[in-house]
Amino acid sequence: MAAGAGQRHGVSGWRQSSLSLVFGALLVLSLVGQAVSGLAGWNADARSAGLAEVSMLDYVTSSAFCVDLAENWQSEYLQFTLYILGTIWLVQRGSSESKKPGDEGRESDERQLVGRFAREDSPRWARAGGWRTALYSHSLATTMAVVFLLSWGAQAVAGRVADNEERMRDLLEPLDLAAYLGSADFWNRTLQNWQSELLAIGTMAVFAIYLRERGSPESKPVGMPHHKTTADD
What is the C-alpha separation between 97 and 162, in angstroms, rounded? Predict the structure, then answer.
């Protein structure tokens, strides 16, 4: 009986965290795939140039691998940061990705369940009041922004090293960090990722007005009219 109960509890626990677990596993698989394919391409170029091949450890610790990783991560966290902050004040009527027009803003303490309106099971800092509640009230966007800035910084450092390796092969003077931050290579890497994230946010907001995916929280109910943003709109 106890074993059966434990097994059922384990299944329930997995299901309750299945979204993060599945996407975590997909992330690991994609990183492995990126490393394997990137190493193959690197060594193919090395053989063509008559250079020595590198090991997997050498490749995943190289500036070439790190800059590709960092530039993708920084753009994703920029997307999260802009979307979290933008949807406080900006609305798109009929989109499940938006609040209802007229609900713009930070919302009342009562609706946000903070201070005297907090529940017994509310997070401790939501009930604490003062600077702790204020800090916790912005913790999501703050964390996303910090990760974005750290990733962008990592992209700048690793990108400079990778760019200077190419410059040295071409017998050009290496760039210091300040010069690299103003270079075409840095901004080309940055902006091509930013535009893809901004495109994704904009199209998702508009597509969600007219298109549906039954059962997904990212979609309105299939039968909800296009012009309605929420069920009580």
Answer: 39
Give the tens place of pLDDT for each residue, 188-211.
999 999 999 999 999 999 999 999
CB burial readout 148-177, b (16+ within 10 A) else e: beebbebbbebbbbbbbeeeeeeeeeebee
How many Å apart are CA 78 and CA 195, to the nearest integer?
A: 11
From residue 122, alpha-carbon distances to 43, 83, 128, 133, 220 in Å are 54, 25, 10, 11, 28
Distance CA 220, CA 209 (A): 8
Residues contacting residue 56 through CB under 8 Å, at least 6 positions apart: 35, 39
* Residue whose entry in the numeric block shows the structure tokens 């610790």: 61
Distances (CA, A) of 158 to 66, 154, 165, 185: 6, 6, 11, 12
Identify whether the C-beta of residue 87 lies closer than 8 Å to the C-beta of residue 98: yes
Cβ-based neighbours of 79, under 8 Å, separated by 6 or more: 197, 198, 200, 201
**What is the C-alpha separation between 118 and 124, in angstroms, rounded?**
9
- For the chain, list the strands marked E by DSSP: none
Is there a contact between 79 and 212 (Cβ–Cβ < 8 Å)? no
pTM: 0.84
